Structures are given as C-alpha cells and as structure tokens.
C-alpha cells in the first residue's frame, strides 16, 4: 500500500502519522519526494482498511499495490488448486462436467435425468432442493425431501451431488448429505453463510454474484478460505448488463482473469448465463476454449414442464450432443473430457 501525503505536510506531522500507521501492525518506509512525502506500507496490509487511512487529514491518496485477498491469490500459491470430490477432480487436466435439473421435482424426474447425464459422461449431478426464487409464490424446491431424492440418485448412479445451501442453519445437514455445497449468486456476499460453509469439510462451489466484480468474488472465496475451507471452486454464471436479450451476460474474460489472479479452479454455468437453451452449446464451447475447468449445465427430461428454468434446460439428447461437441475443443486446448 502506498500513501501519498498532501504537499503541505510537515516532517513532524508525517512522523506522527507513520507512528499511527505502525500501530496497525505494519512497517512504514518513508520517501521524501519533490512535492512531499510518500509512505510505503509494508507487511500484511490485508487487515488495513484503505478508507480509514484516507481519513487522516495529511493523506492525499492511498493506492493498493497488492490484492486484498491472500489465500485465494496465485502470488502466494503459484500451483493450481485441484479439488477432490469423492475421487473426481476439478482443476486438473480432466474437465469436470456437472449436469442435472435446475430443481429436484419428483423421484422419477431426478432418477431419469441422473441416469441420462451419467450415460452421456457427466461426472457430477446437480439439482436444487432449496431454490432461491425471485418470487415468494414460485416453487421453492422440495427442500429436505429433495435432498433425500438426490441421495437416492447418487446411490443409483454413483454420481456425487452438488446442491445449493441458502441458510447457515442447514450446514450440518449438508455436511452429512451432499458432496459439493453450492453457494448461489444471490448469496455470494452473505458473509455469515460464507463463514459457516468455511467450517465445512465439503468443497464449496461459489457462484459469482449477479453484479459483482472479480475482486469482490475473490474476497468471498477468501472468506470461506479464511474460515478454514480451502476447497473452493469458482463458477462464472453471467453478470447483469444492460442487455436483456439474454438472461445475463457470460463474462468469458473472467476465466483468464481468474486463472491469472487465483489458483482456484473455475467452471462456467452457461445455462444461467444465457437463460436460453440454444445458447448453452456455443457458450460451453467458448468457456472450454477459454480455459474453464468444467461446466455446470441444466438438463431436464421434460423442459416444457419443468418447475424451474425450463427455457434454459437442455433435453438429455441435447446434453449428449453437447458432450460430443465439447470433446474436440477440450482436446484442442490440451484438456480431456
Ligand atoms: C442454480 O444453479 O440453480 C442457481 C440458482 O444459480 P445462480 O445462483 O447462479 O442463479
Ligand atoms: Mn436454475
């Protein structure tokens, strides 16, 4: 962190300020420039609130030279993190393909979709039991019964299950029941939830918030990691822009950005990004080509009658086609399916 002082600051004022800054647990390197003093703050600046430093009357400007996230930062952890889920890896050479319905609806529906995505080569099963719906009158998910149905689908197929947690009060139940705990876009900055899932032993799939920057997203990963859980998988799922033709705008550039800034794996959700079935394939191809570590895709056995997100859900046949089509793209970027 670099602190530029106002030109009229005297040497005495500067020394008092430097002492005050040292009380925050850092070292201060003093430089005298032509127009005034510049203080270099050295050490762990992650606990220093930039706005607090800006409030000192002698301070003209404060600039961070290092990112505020440490555990999620590639600088301190140069090698890619590979997250292990029941022997399946996310972040290694093999792509992770997670597929399944938006929400668990009936025993027949989840069993049928689980079997078909497995046969097409998916490595994990998704399905929401607790649904974050915009309307309180919309289907909220089967809740605990949905979790039970996911467990049955896992027992039948062997596919690990990925499902969304909405409240810290479900941490114990999820710890026991699920293989990957999804924190949805709407909860990306639910800091109480992040701290609680940070105490879990299960990997966390952290979706990017609807209107959050990459740095805010990595700070949310940092919350989980700072609580003790370093198995975080990031998921780009589209962000809000002025475009309304698509549900969201898939930020493809987030993939190389995350790869540069962080060692955590990143997967892409083309379904919630597009909101339109016909775009799921091209966005998946683009995501893999850009270096994503996998995909999470919505698939439904009867999209026209789905209780949630039918318009963006692929049929099992379309999902099979997607798997066929991403294979050569994966190979062309040195990855395997
Ligand atoms: C979902 O994956 O079912 C979901 C609700 O996604 P998001 O949080 O990205 O909107
Ligand atoms: Mn959905």
Low-confidence parts lasting 5 or more residues at pLDDT below 50? none
Strand content: 15-25%
Instruction: Please give the CATH class of the largest domain.
Output: Alpha Beta
Going by helix content, strand content and strand pairing, the class is alpha/beta
User: What sort of overall outline do the alpha carbons produce when their principal axes are compared?
Assistant: elongated
How are the strands of the largest sheet arranged?
Answer: 13-12-11-10-9-8-7-14
Task: Indicate the CATH topology of the largest domain.
Answer: TIM Barrel
Please report the distance between the alpha carbons of the first and last residues. 43 Å
Put simply, the count of helices is 11
Radius of gyration: 23 Å
Question: How would you sum up the major sheet?
Answer: 8 strands, parallel
CATH architecture descriptor of the largest domain: Alpha-Beta Barrel
Overall pLDDT, averaged?
A: 96
Q: What are the secondary-structure elements, in order, as H or E?
A: EHEEHEEEEHEHEHEHEHEHEHHEH
Output the CATH homologous superfamily of the largest domain.
Aldolase class I
Number of strands: 14
Number of domains: 2
Give the % helix: 25-40%
């Amino acid at each position: 962190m670099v602190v530029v002082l106002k030109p009229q600051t005297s040497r005495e004022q500067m020394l008092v300020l430097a002492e005050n800054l040292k009380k925050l647990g850092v070292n201060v390197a003093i430089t005298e420039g032509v127009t005034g003093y510049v203080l270099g703050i050295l050490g762990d600046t992650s606990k220093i609130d930039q706005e607090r430093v800006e409030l000192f009357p002698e301070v003209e400007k404060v600039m961070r030279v290092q990112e505020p996230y440490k555990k999620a930062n590639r600088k301190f952890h140069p090698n890619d993190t590979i997250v292990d889920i029941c022997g399946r890896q996310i972040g290694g050479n093999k792509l992770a393909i997670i597929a399944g319905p938006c929400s668990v609806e009936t025993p027949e529906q989840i069993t049928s979709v689980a079997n078909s995505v497995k046969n097409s080569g998916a490595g994990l099963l998704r399905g929401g039991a607790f649904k974050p719906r915009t309307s309180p009158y919309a289907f909220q998910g089967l809740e605990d019964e949905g979790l039970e149905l996911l467990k049955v689908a896992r027992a039948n197929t062997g596919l690990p299950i990925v499902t969304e947690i909405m409240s810290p009060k479900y941490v114990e139940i999820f710890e026991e029941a699920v293989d990957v705990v999804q924190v949805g876009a709407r909860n990306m900055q639910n800091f109480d939830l992040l701290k609680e899932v940070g105490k879990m032993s299960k990997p966390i799939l952290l979706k990017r918030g609807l209107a959050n920057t990459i740095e805010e997203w990595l700070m949310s990963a940092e919350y989980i990691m700072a609580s003790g859980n370093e198995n975080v998988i990031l998921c780009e799922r589209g962000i809000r822009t002025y475009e309304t033709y698509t549900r969201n705008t898939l930020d493809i550039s987030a993939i190389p950005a995350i790869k540069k800034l962080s060692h955590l794996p990143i997967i892409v959700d083309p379904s919630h990004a597009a909101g339109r079935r016909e775009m799921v394939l091209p966005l998946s191809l683009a995501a893999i080509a850009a270096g994503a570590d996998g995909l999470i895709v919505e698939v439904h056995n009867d999209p026209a009658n789905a209780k949630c997100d039918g318009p963006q859900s692929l049929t099992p046949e379309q999902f099979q086609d997607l798997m066929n089509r991403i294979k050569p793209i994966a190979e062309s970027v040195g990855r395997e399916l």
